[in-house]
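Ticket #4471: structure output looks truncated?

Reporter: J.K.
Steps to reproduce: submitted the chain below (115 residues) through the standard prediction queue, then opened the result file.
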Amino acid sequence: MNNTQRITALGLVLAVFAAWALLLTSPAQAVTLKNTSVKLPESTRVFPGDSAGAKAANSYCLMCHSVGMVMNQPDLGKAAWLVEVNKMKNAFKAPIPEDQVAIIADYIDSIKGKK
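Returned output as attached by the reporter:
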């Protein structure tokens, strides 16, 4: 074992002892949970239009997002909107049917795409 390894090992041992000593000398902190309520703002705003894309966006996007939140995003290209909708479906588990992903992405591109 070289000097660097000895110093690292000694530092680790000292850190473990310090943490152990702190646990033994600190009084336990009680955690109290309280109920609370939050009133979220309400909106009746919907995505404009009567197309399949508008209907899909209103059905699936508004579960989690407001229209304003989507409309305040940067203008993206069609491929980027498809990535975003897939991220909502796959990473964040939005219940968007697979056959609606491209429809939503196309619609959002039509109202919020890079021109």
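Triage note (M.O.): checked the attachment and the full token line is present. The first helix runs from residue 3 to 25.
Status: closed, working as intended.
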